[in-house]
Amino acid sequence: AQSVTQLDSQVPVFEEAPVELRCNYSSSVSVYLFWYVQYPNQGLQLLLKYLSGSTLVKGINGFEAEFNKSQTSFHLRKPSVHISDTAEYFCAVRGRSGGSNYKLTFGKGTLLTVNP
Amino acid sequence: EAQVTQNPRYLITVTGKKLTVTCSQNMNHEYMSWYRQDPGLGLRQIYYSMNVEVTDKGDVPEGYKVSRKEKRNFPLILESPSPNQTSLYFCASSFRIGQGIADTQYFGPGTRLTVL
After folding, report:
1. Tens of pLDDT, residue by residue, chain A (116 residues)
2. Which end of chain B has fewer CB atoms within 10 angstroms, the N or the C?
3. B1 touching A, CB under 8 A?
4. Phi and psi of B36, rounded to 5°?
């Protein structure tokens, strides 16, 4: 079984400031890791994913995330945010094998609010 | 255009009145799933289907039914809705690979259900 903890439920920042949204996971098997974004009144959109290889993953809209296996973390970062980045962000994990390799487990979400 | 569609997008109903939320995908995906999203709880899986006529319970299946008679459709049925089923519902789909599923799930736009 897997679990995901998003350490901040809300993150307010000013426009053009850097931001980090934190995500920690636990799992008894190797995992795939994802970040999804949900803009107001919309569905979920894949932002980026870590499957294997380089631990630094780049996604859409200038976001990137770093997989840290020893700390079981997958934090999302952006060096300079825009008003349009205001959204809810979900970290998710899925097992690579065994009975959990179909199940996507989500964190509770982090609401990023970018202020002018 | 590749997409997952849900209908209706918004629904207000009363306790006990049976309803069905439809989900359809045009990507020939084997795997389909339903999630509910509640504030502070993230997304939780209700039911999933690995292929036609194959369905199984997720984390919160109580009060819901599903069917998978065709590959493209995966309706969610609430036989006797109650106020605690007021939520935002998402359908998702993915290719199946071996015993698991492909890494990326595609989400529908969501159905906001209110049960009075």
Report:
1. 789 999 999 999 999 999 999 999 998 888 889 999 999 888 888 999 998 889 999 999 999 999 999 999 999 999 999 999 999 999 999 887 666 566 788 999 999 999 99
2. N
3. no
4. -120, 145
